[in-house]
Protein backbone atom coordinates (compact mmCIF):
# COMPACT_ATOMS: atom_id res chain seq x y z
CA UNK A 1 0.00 0.00 0.00
CA UNK A 2 1.34 3.41 -0.96
CA UNK A 3 0.55 6.76 0.59
CA UNK A 4 0.26 9.78 -1.64
CA UNK A 5 0.65 13.29 -0.33
CA UNK A 6 -1.97 15.60 -1.75
CA UNK A 7 -1.50 19.36 -1.50
CA UNK A 8 -4.18 21.41 0.29
CA UNK A 9 -5.69 22.53 -3.00
CA UNK A 10 -6.48 18.91 -3.86
CA UNK A 11 -3.73 18.72 -6.45
CA UNK A 12 -5.72 20.86 -8.87
CA UNK A 13 -3.48 23.91 -8.84
CA UNK A 14 -5.05 27.37 -8.94
CA UNK A 15 -8.11 26.20 -10.87
CA UNK A 16 -9.60 24.56 -7.77
CA UNK A 17 -10.49 27.90 -6.19
CA UNK A 18 -12.64 28.85 -9.18
CA UNK A 19 -14.80 25.74 -8.73
CA UNK A 20 -15.46 26.14 -5.01
CA UNK A 21 -19.02 26.75 -4.01
CA UNK A 22 -19.51 30.17 -2.46
CA UNK A 23 -20.36 30.31 1.20
CA UNK A 24 -23.84 31.52 1.99
CA UNK A 25 -23.83 35.14 3.04
CA UNK A 26 -25.08 35.33 6.60
CA UNK A 27 -26.38 38.67 7.72
CA UNK A 28 -28.79 40.10 10.21
CA UNK A 29 -32.17 41.53 9.31
CA UNK A 30 -32.76 45.25 9.94
CA UNK A 31 -34.80 44.46 13.07
CA UNK A 32 -32.08 42.14 14.37
CA UNK A 33 -29.45 44.84 13.76
CA UNK A 34 -31.60 47.32 15.71
CA UNK A 35 -31.89 44.88 18.61
CA UNK A 36 -28.15 44.17 18.51
CA UNK A 37 -27.40 47.91 18.66
CA UNK A 38 -29.70 48.31 21.67
CA UNK A 39 -28.18 45.27 23.37
CA UNK A 40 -24.65 46.61 22.86
CA UNK A 41 -25.57 49.97 24.36
CA UNK A 42 -27.17 48.22 27.35
CA UNK A 43 -24.16 45.95 27.77
CA UNK A 44 -21.87 48.97 27.73
CA UNK A 45 -23.83 50.40 30.64
CA UNK A 46 -23.73 47.06 32.45
CA UNK A 47 -19.96 46.65 31.99
CA UNK A 48 -19.20 50.32 32.67
CA UNK A 49 -17.24 51.23 29.55
CA UNK A 50 -16.74 50.36 25.91
CA UNK A 51 -13.20 49.22 26.71
CA UNK A 52 -14.36 46.68 29.29
CA UNK A 53 -17.11 45.36 27.01
CA UNK A 54 -14.67 45.15 24.09
CA UNK A 55 -12.28 43.11 26.23
CA UNK A 56 -15.06 40.73 27.28
CA UNK A 57 -16.24 40.32 23.68
CA UNK A 58 -12.66 40.19 22.30
CA UNK A 59 -13.36 42.95 19.80
CA UNK A 60 -11.99 46.40 19.03
CA UNK A 61 -13.66 49.32 20.79
CA UNK A 62 -14.13 51.20 17.53
CA UNK A 63 -15.87 48.20 15.96
CA UNK A 64 -18.30 47.94 18.87
CA UNK A 65 -19.06 51.64 18.83
CA UNK A 66 -19.59 51.56 15.07
CA UNK A 67 -22.14 48.78 15.38
CA UNK A 68 -23.84 50.28 18.45
CA UNK A 69 -24.32 53.67 16.81
CA UNK A 70 -25.35 52.35 13.39
CA UNK A 71 -22.24 53.24 11.40
CA UNK A 72 -21.45 49.57 10.81
CA UNK A 73 -23.76 46.60 10.45
CA UNK A 74 -23.39 43.82 12.95
CA UNK A 75 -22.75 40.21 12.10
CA UNK A 76 -24.08 36.95 13.53
CA UNK A 77 -20.67 36.50 15.18
CA UNK A 78 -21.00 39.84 16.96
CA UNK A 79 -24.49 38.87 18.10
CA UNK A 80 -23.13 35.60 19.45
CA UNK A 81 -20.39 37.39 21.41
CA UNK A 82 -22.89 39.92 22.75
CA UNK A 83 -25.24 37.15 23.86
CA UNK A 84 -22.39 35.40 25.65
CA UNK A 85 -21.42 38.65 27.38
CA UNK A 86 -25.06 39.16 28.42
CA UNK A 87 -25.47 35.58 29.61
CA UNK A 88 -28.41 34.89 27.31
CA UNK A 89 -28.94 33.01 24.07
CA UNK A 90 -28.71 34.69 20.67
CA UNK A 91 -32.43 34.04 20.23
CA UNK A 92 -33.20 35.90 23.44
CA UNK A 93 -30.91 38.75 22.45
CA UNK A 94 -32.29 39.18 18.92
CA UNK A 95 -35.64 37.43 19.07
CA UNK A 96 -37.66 40.29 20.38
CA UNK A 97 -38.85 38.65 23.58
CA UNK A 98 -38.34 42.05 25.19
CA UNK A 99 -38.45 45.51 23.72
CA UNK A 100 -35.34 46.52 21.81
CA UNK A 101 -34.53 49.34 24.25
CA UNK A 102 -34.72 47.06 27.29
CA UNK A 103 -32.10 44.89 28.94
CA UNK A 104 -32.76 41.26 27.93
CA UNK A 105 -31.84 40.06 31.42
CA UNK A 106 -33.63 42.42 33.80
CA UNK A 107 -36.06 44.26 31.51
CA UNK A 108 -34.88 47.71 32.56
CA UNK A 109 -35.22 50.37 29.86
CA UNK A 110 -32.24 52.47 29.04
TrEMBL record:
<feature type="region of interest" description="Disordered">
    <location>
        <begin position="1"/>
        <end position="21"/>
    </location>
</feature>
<protein>
    <submittedName>
        <fullName>Uncharacterized protein</fullName>
    </submittedName>
</protein>
<dbReference type="InterPro" id="IPR010982">
    <property type="entry name" value="Lambda_DNA-bd_dom_sf"/>
</dbReference>
<dbReference type="GO" id="GO:0003677">
    <property type="term" value="F:DNA binding"/>
</dbReference>
